[in-house]
């Protein structure tokens, strides 16, 4: 538990040793090179900082490899300004020209040498950082299922398996409970397991749900990790216990931070290993009784409405889990969706009052909740879409409405425990269509607004920090900026904020005034004395690997440091090794008592895990990091009975989707996602009257809901469809063999063509798809004369094809689709002679990556996302 902008409650959790400062005059050297101690992507920008004096600006530097051989030389840049009275200049060292993978350090002759760092791929550098951060969750496990090889952990708080539920206490202004605790029900509950929230042993639904949300996004992002998956399952098991399906009660908290300060006490009143709590024998209601027999508090009364912040973020956790499990374990996924739907449906969205976060509320004070509701809604939509649940459209509507309220409000922040609006809006931007309460442009603009604010701060900062670091949670906010920049890259295809994201990674991994990574065990210099009871007491040399600490804080905040009992001195000599580098109103202290800069927390760490999982797979311009899209699958249209037979996997077998008729046999079928729900529908073009008929559902139970005459079309045109403007909805158009012109509109309505583009030859087959993964479909064609494919990334213009290659055999029918769910449409063919699909995951020649026999010789291939 951390207090946001307030002091910690307990002095007993503080060390009793004298603070000894190190001044700049006492330092062994007068200048330092601050670098990202993990390393820099080979193809990205690379900047270090010389923390020194004005006289050193403009001096030369050398980059040397592990053998000491110079590989690059240059000149230190002009000073960006003074840091403090001792370090009067901060000068950038730009070594972006170094692009060869390896281990390096930077030298400034006669001054100093940097720590060693790596140059390599973004994935090779940062995916391991994300993986390391999972270890903190392993260390913070509670209950019987701990990991003995992690900090010598032992089972703890076994009484949580039969815990008593109490009514919400009354607290005084200091956070002490007034009077005793009153039971809320006679039945006990099993709330064992879960994660300790921070350096103490309390467990909160509010923070655990956020941690799961962000860990699940990391797992969903395209960088899955088996260890992370196991830890997510551990957390989900506990969250499931905190939700009672039978009574519709969500439990909010296990344990009390403090007691009444007279008769009984709480978690924060003693510094100990967690397993010692199971040995307490104090009489009921006295002394440390509630430290062993920990109270549980409800977030809502049975069946009553639920605080909307909890309803949103808890439902989001179960819904993202359902997305992750939709393909591998659909039965589990449907169960998770059921829980998510029930919790979201209980949200109290009128006369809300004080939000339920923790007891007391000031532990994690918050009053913003529309972000949580938008988040829960869009994740429910994505889960429902993945499972073919008919409620998907309704949840999308709700998500858009709550996002509208969030955007219209005046409280916006980058991703962190107190604001999940950026992840909600990023996911929403991938699925929103026209007519919703918000537009894709507004959602993207909201991400830009927050990132632009960070860029402005970074441009004014000596070390290019985008987060405020003279206040709480600077590390977490930095992670949030990295994650948000990666999500922006994903949904727009733009690398506009790639350099900014790298700057933030540099800062949090050592390129800051103090020269320390803010993740334990990551980098060559990192926090050695975190404010964490287990790490402190388990023994000298124990490393709380993966834990992200609060980071620098306002100087005045450290006035609240107090000595305490039972704490092992750390550092043992009492020296404050970072004192010389404090400046600009900010201070960092690596001491066990310095909770305001050195306490780790699960929300800090999960935000870092998702940040580096998103930054790692691709770095600048890398692959998408949003919700994993469905892969397109196969089907056929049978002209003899004008019927579609569709499969929901690229495998042989019978049709999974009930067969349905398209038209009466005289029309040309067309496939597309007309309503933006992520599932393709069907339609046809009738050459007799040049009309399109479009239906959202994969059946023929009703007539197509959209019918219009395409005034731009002619009877001999070939129908096409695609998302040409990137709004998430497919629209139709035609290609005319006689003039090789594509004519299309960005809405499925009558009217003149909005785009007219020449492409192909009179004897070729038109193709549409998103060849580069930018969210916009463009054009291509297949030439049967030489079996060649020609694809352009731009919808308009006269440039050459971006992809030209030969694939398949004479007589093959071309198909294009996203076969591996990477956001890019790639080549395939259907071979009538063998009735087989041959599909590739890249737009280049080669052997098929996937093969599946399906259909009859006279069929026509049909592909799409039917799920």
Describe this structure in a few short sentences.
The protein has 867 residues and is α+β, with helices and mostly antiparallel strands.
What features would you highlight for this structure?
867 residues, alpha+beta, six-stranded mixed β-sheet, five-stranded mixed β-sheet, 15 helices, disordered N terminus
The end-to-end span amounts to 42 Å
- Give the overall form: globular
Largest sheet geometry: 6 strands, mixed
**Fraction of residues in helix:** 10-25%
Query: Number of helical runs?
Result: 15
Which residues form runs of ≥5 with pLDDT under 50? 2-28, 618-629
Number of strands: 38
Q: Beta-sheet strand percentage?
A: 15-25%
Structural class: alpha+beta
Integer average pLDDT:
91
- Report the radius of gyration as a whole number of Å: 30 Å
How would you portray this structure in words?
With 867 residues, the protein is α+β, with helices and mostly antiparallel strands. The chain has 15 helices and 38 strands. A hairpin with a 4-residue loop joins strand 31 (778-783) and strand 32. Helix 2 (205-220) packs antiparallel against helix 3, helix 8 (392-408) crosses helix 9 (421-429) and helix 11 (474-492) runs antiparallel to helix 12.
